[in-house]
Amino acid sequence: MVQDLINLDEKECVIITHYSTGIKVVRDARDQHKNKEEALKEIKRRVNNFYRTGHDDELVEERRSQIGTGERSDKRRTYRVKNAMVYDHITNKSASLKDILRGRIELLV
């Protein structure tokens, strides 16, 4: 959570941002301490409401779709040190491990 305090023409503006959810609260009355107190209450209310309504499940599902499951079918390459071979599962090409370690990755692309 980030707090920004800004002085604007006798108003003490308070901006609080909750990074995980992206929720931002702005308060700009005359009293800075009251603004901060109200902004913290409001952001707590909004964040609790965000997690209560199940938006967290959507974010988790989106992250899982980007990362994958970690199963064998998600592999990009197999490095076989015993056989000194590298196999790319996307392009169905293979190359020697020595060539890949020397930086010749274009053999798999």
Q: What percentage of residues falls in helices of 4 or more residues?
A: 25-40%
Sequence of strands across the biggest β-sheet: 1-2-3
> What percent strand?
25-35%
How many distinct helices? 3
Give the terminus-to-terminus CA distance.
Answer: 42 Å
Radius of gyration: 26 Å
Number of domains: 2
Specify the structural class: alpha+beta
Order of helices and strands: EEEHHEEEH
Number of strands: 6
> Average pLDDT across residues?
83
For the report, how would you describe the main beta sheet?
Answer: 3 strands, antiparallel
Overall body shape? elongated
Which residue ranges are poorly predicted, with pLDDT under 50 across at least 5 consecutive positions?
A: none
Walk me through the structure:
- It is a single chain.
- This protein is of the alpha+beta class and 109 residues long.
- The protein has two domains: 2-63; 75-107, no CATH class.
- The protein contains three helices and six strands; from the N terminus they run E-E-E-H-H-E-E-E-H.
- The chain has helices at residues 32-52, 55-67, 97-101; strands at residues 2-8, 11-18, 23-27, 77-80, 85-88, 93-96.
- The chain has a three-stranded antiparallel beta sheet with strand order 1-2-3, with helices on one face.
- It is elongated, with a radius of gyration of 26 Å.
- The mean pLDDT is 83.
In short, what is this structure?
This protein is an alpha+beta fold and 109 residues long. It is built from 3 helices and 6 strands; from the N terminus they run βββααβββα. The protein folds into 2 domains: 2-63; 75-107, no CATH class.
